[in-house]
């Protein structure tokens, strides 16, 4: 990520930040084979994603709808995060384990 102008976050090894002198910022979250780019400048993020995809084999899947088990919805200027599907899956797994122990 340093090759394309990002700095490592001090708080998390999977978070990378790119800041420009005029106040634009891109935050990239990278986890194994999942990545997400958040920005306040659409043109700049397209450039950085293109650079990212030239280094690593990947595809741009468009607007983020799910990341690491978290459902993501946009409503106006709001971003709504929801882990209901993940929690239901965890509950079902616990129920299955309980039934196999009986």
Briefly say what this structure is.
The protein is of the alpha+beta class. The protein is 31% helix and 32% strand. The chain has 2 helices and 7 strands, in the order ββββαβββα.
Descriptive account of the structure:
The protein has 102 residues and is of the alpha+beta class. The chain has 2 domains: 1-62, no CATH class; 63-102. The chain has helices spanning 42-55, 84-101, and strands spanning 7-8, 15-19, 25-31, 34-39, 66-67, 70-75, 78-82. The strands form 2 sheets. The chain has a 4-stranded antiparallel beta sheet with strand order 1-2-3-4, with helices on one face. Strands 5-6-7 form a 3-stranded antiparallel beta sheet. The longest helix is centred in the C-terminal third of the chain and has 18 residues, at 84-101. The radius of gyration is 18 Å and the shape is elongated. The termini are far apart. The model has no long low-confidence stretch (mean pLDDT 85).
For this entry, give a set of tags.
about 100 residues, alpha+beta, four-stranded antiparallel beta sheet, three-stranded antiparallel beta sheet, 7 strands, about 30% helix
Topology:
Blueprint: E1 7-8, E2 15-19, E3 25-31, E4 34-39, H1 42-55, E5 66-67, E6 70-75, E7 78-82, H2 84-101
Antiparallel strand pairs: 1-2, 2-3, 3-4, 5-6, 6-7
C-alpha geometry: elongated
Q: In terms of structural class, how would the helical and strand content be classed?
A: alpha+beta
Order of helices and strands: EEEEHEEEH
The major beta sheet can be summarized as: 4 strands, antiparallel
Distance between the ends: 50 Å
Instruction: Enumerate the spans where pLDDT stays under 50 for 5 or more consecutive residues.
Output: none
Cα radius of gyration in angstroms: 18 Å
Q: What's the count of strands?
A: 7
The number of helices is 2
Q: Which range best describes the helical content: under 10%, 10-25%, 25-40%, 40-55%, 55-70% or over 70%?
A: 25-40%
Number of individual domains: 2
Query: Approximately what portion of the residues adopt beta-strand conformation?
Result: 25-35%
Strand order of the biggest β-sheet: 1-2-3-4
Question: What's the mean pLDDT score?
Answer: 85
